[in-house]
Specification:
- The protein is α/β, with parallel strands linked by helices.
- The chain contains 12 helices and 14 strands.
- The protein folds into 2 domains: 248 residues, P-loop containing nucleotide triphosphate hydrolases (Rossmann fold, 3-Layer(aba) Sandwich); 111 residues, no CATH class.
- It is 33% helix and 21% strand.
- Strands 5-4-6-7-3-8-9-10-11 form a 9-stranded mixed sheet, with helices on both faces.
């Protein structure tokens, strides 16, 4: 044991313990993690989705981590609880009785919650509610004036007590922050403020738009000190009229955080294939279209049919040939879309069509296969 003359102890006296996970290999219990991304990429919605899963015992988005229902705490600085947080949590399927926020009476008495000045208040909240997940969104909104966001030492001093509380109460803490405007940086340096945020957190995750499909977003690993590299996950934000947005997790994708950062650094125009993917995702976002309308819309973009066909396979777009009473038309549909109600009922999708489309989306054909026959054509097209 340490004594007054020697404050050190040998490591042999340390009792080893294994890591516990909220989200296996991604978010560890007792540790800090950080979600980073530009506004509108869904990072806050993802934190609420995680709260919904924790409070109901459902698995994490990749199918792992199912556990007994537990509580969660949300400290939010940009959205109101009554018109945004509560409706979104309800839409995501959360057990609202297990999600806790600061009460308005408490805030009127004490003023806005600030760290590290009110770390004791957070300690009391964790002891009383015993959450497995705590979200602070965005972390910058809750740092008091003594903290210099651009100073590594200042950030470490502010986050060190937070890390101690995470360990003491055995809960995962997710901090949220926006990106800076310097696209020349690597992904590790894109977060606003000091690198000390990423240094203090055991894992960091980038939330960004899929470069080839603006209807999709991705969650990519920036760093992970506690596990091997984890696959990037894709998701869509589902918006239906005035209803709160929901999430549709789409599984792994090949993008990495560094590839996203590298694309942001590029000043050159996208290749024709990339432009075709962006074009198709945008033109079909509002609903399915017939190919004659798609070809017509593609003319101003100077995209060839073969390039668009490649993009169709890349995006998992399915086609369906129907008779509208006058002639046959081929319609293209993004994953999850159905033919318009204006078509005759007998021409619309039946359950077999939907099931077949889901299987095709789950097991897509190799988009390069039909292009391998004539590599010279593809090469020439890339020069257009």
């Amino acid at each position: 044991m340490a004594d007054a003359l020697n404050p050190m102890i040998p490591v042999s006296q340390v009792v080893p313990r294994s890591l516990d996970w909220l989200w296996p290999e991604r978010l560890a219990l007792g540790k800090l993690a950080i979600f980073e991304g530009d506004p509108g990429r869904g990072k806050s919605l993802v934190t609420l989705d995680l709260c919904a899963r924790v409070t109901t015992g459902r698995p994490m988005p990749d199918g792992t981590g199912a556990a007994e229902p537990a509580s969660a705490i949300v400290i939010q600085g940009e959205d109101f609880a009554d018109d945004t947080i509560a409706p979104r949590l309800k839409s995501l399927g959360a057990d609202l009785a297990r999600v806790f926020i600061f009460g308005s009476d408490h805030l009127r008495k004490t003023g806005p919650f600030q760290l590290p000045a009110q770390i004791a208040v957070l300690d009391q909240a964790l002891a009383a509610n015993k959450p497995r997940l705590l979200v602070i969104d965005p972390i910058m909104a809750f740092l008091d004036r003594t903290v210099l966001a651009a100073s590594d030492q200042s950030i470490r001093r502010a986050l060190s007590p937070l890390a101690d509380l995470a360990d003491q109460h055995h809960c995962a803490m997710v901090l949220v922050r926006h990106l800076n405007k310097n696209v020349s940086y690597r992904s590790l340096y894109r977060g606003g403020g000091s690198i000390g945020f990423n240094a203090a957190c055991r894992s960091s995750w980038l939330f960004a738009e899929d470069p080839l499909d603006p209807t999709r977003h991705i969650m990519a690993q920036i760093k992970n000190n506690l596990a091997d590299a984890q696959p990037t996950l894709a998701y869509r934000i589902l918006r239906e009229s005035s209803a709160p947005p929901r999430l549709d997790w789409l599984g792994p994708t090949s993008w990495t955080a560094e590839e996203i950062a590298a694309r942001a650094r590029r000043k050159t125009e996208l290749l024709p294939r990339d432009r075709a993917c962006v074009f198709l995702a945008k033109v079909l976002e509002a609903g399915p279209l017939s190919t004659d309308l798609i070809w017509k819309a593609a003319q101003p973009e100077r995209l060839k049919r073969r390039t668009i066909e490649y993009a169709r396979h890349t995006l998992g777009i399915r086609s369906k040939r129907v008779f509208d009473g006058k002639s046959y038309l081929t319609w293209w549909l993004l994953p999850g879309q159905r033919l318009p109600d204006s078509l005759p009922p007998e021409q619309r999708d039946d359950e077999f069509d939907i099931m077949l489309a889901e299987q095709c989306e789950k097991y897509p054909a190799d988009p390069l296969a039909p292009l391998e026959e004539n590599e010279e054509v593809v090469h020439n097209e890339e020069q257009d």
